[in-house]
Design a protein that fits this description.
- With 459 residues, the chain is of the alpha/beta class.
Length: 459
């Protein structure tokens, strides 16, 4: 996610961060002065806060070095907190996305996708105030943004950070804890946009002067819009966008392959078990047998996970008295089958598009599951287990909308499948999934359009 792109103007990141940690970190970089804070009732308080923070910074740096020596913080995190970049800035304009934590950063991925689709490749930086699971951001965000921890809210750390990254546009999805960083961005002429979330702490606590300095305020509902207008923000600056959804794009389906599979299935309804772990095989086959009693011609398309042994799967099918075939042997009027076994490298997209129900495996077993967005985007009702790892928030969002159902045992899977395969129920869950994804996508498009216009207007 941190591609090594050279930036001669800004200079490369430090080659040996540990060599400088704790030595001379209280010396501001050239040009790192933050300038005058925005004028207004809070300006005097801001100047006092910055002066005190600057006095205390040498002691804070020594404390950070001590935490690294004790193993309480990584060298990379300490340098990022200090405002020192550990990745190269991409050339050209830069959009900076800031959130409180990993959970707050994930919905911004949808904005990144929309921005790239509408305006082409754009440099992007993602920062979080709180350290979290970087693996989640790597797996869930698009592949091009740089990911860093935000600097400490101290003048010199903020100065170093802004000197290096030089953002043109900022989308801020955080509370007031990092107000000095936001104020410094405003002071440097960055187009700053606030994305509120429920409940939002900014609106009752921010001064009028700071709200008025924002380019746009993206709001979740009309109640926030009323608060912003009451604070004196021009109506044109408050945009009721809703909250964007996490990055999700419907998988590309080859129409020719889909037509071939549909012809081979001869109108038989299908459900898919994707990424099935070996210990989940008996549960999936039991669920299929239960569903087949209600809809005898239903087909199971089963895609195994990387660790599931094919010979063991074949033995399980034989014990269940289920006829299986491979996807490459499908043809109209061909051999009779109950189950289609997909190879590990098979394209899942046409199968997901044909299926009315998708069980996403590795989630009852402790394998970490997989993203539900591809299945939901093509209209499959989603069934899943409790162990979904990096994608827990997405599953919960679909579940809250009635588009997904959580199961914990083979028996619950069989019961959920027998209900979800009913045409009316499957159609209802698919519609709810579509509505949920569409709401998030519309919000992402609205925000991305504004950021793109601001980029075009940047000097």
């Amino acid at each position: 996610m941190t591609s090594p792109v050279d930036d001669d103007e800004a200079g490369p990141p430090p080659s040996d961060p540990k060599a400088t940690l704790g030595r001379g970190l209280n010396t501001p970089s050239e040009g790192s002065a933050l300038g005058n804070p925005p004028a207004g009732p809070g300006a005097f308080t801001g100047r006092v806060r910055r002066r005190v923070a600057g006095i205390l910074e040498p002691w804070a740096d020594r404390a950070a070095a001590a935490r690294v020596r004790r193993g309480e913080e990584t060298v990379q995190n300490a340098h990022q907190r200090h405002g020192t970049a550990t990745a190269a800035r991409p050339p050209g304009p830069l959009v900076w996305f800031h959130a409180a934590d990993t959970a707050g950063a994930l919905p911004l991925g949808g904005v990144m996708l929309s921005l790239a689709a509408e305006f082409g490749p754009t440099g992007a930086l993602v920062t979080t105030r709180l350290p979290g699971d970087s693996g989640t951001l790597v797996r869930r965000l698009p592949p091009w943004p740089m990911v860093q921890l935000a600097p400490h809210a101290r003048p010199q750390a903020i100065g170093r950070f802004l000197d290096y990254w030089r953002p043109d546009v900022l989308l801020w999805h955080d509370g007031p804890e990092m107000a000095p960083l936001l104020d410094a961005a405003l002071d440097r002429g960055v187009a700053v946009n606030l994305l509120t979330s429920a409940p939002d702490p900014w609106l009752p606590r921010r001064g009028r002067w700071r709200l008025r300095a924002l380019s746009k305020v993206f709001l979740r509902d009309t109640a926030d819009l009323a608060q912003v207008r009451a604070a004196g923000v021009a109506a044109a600056r408050g945009v009721r966008s809703g909250l964007p959804g996490a990055a999700a794009a419907a998988p590309e389906v080859d129409p020719g392959e889909r037509a071939r599979l549909a012809a081979a299935l001869e109108g038989r309804p299908i459900w898919i078990a994707d990424g099935v772990a070996q210990e989940e095989l008996p549960m999936v086959l039991h669920a299929h047998e239960a569903a087949a009693r209600a809809m005898p011609r239903r087909v199971l398309a089963r895609a195994l996970d990387d660790e599931c042994d094919l010979d063991t799967a074949a033995e399980a099918l034989a014990r269940a008295n289920l006829a299986a075939t491979g996807e490459d042997r499908l043809a109209p009027g061909g051999v009779a089958f109950d189950v289609v076994v997909l190879t590990q490298g098979a394209d899942r997209a046409p199968w997901l598009a044909l299926a009315t129900v998708a069980f996403l495996g590795g989630s009852i077993a402790r394998h970490g599951g997989r993203s539900p967005m591809a299945a939901a985007a093509v209209g499959a009702a989603v069934l899943y287990g409790p162990h979904v790892g990096y994608w827990a928030d997405l599953y919960q969002r679909l579940r809250d909308a009635g588009a997904a159902r959580r199961v914990t045992t083979g028996r619950e899977l069989a019961q959920a499948l027998s209900t979800a395969i009913l045409p009316d129920r499957a159609a209802d869950m698919a519609h709810r999934a579509w509505a949920t994804l569409s709401d998030g996508a519309e919000a992402a498009d609205t925000i991305a359009a504004t950021l793109g216009e601001q980029l075009d207007a940047a000097p």
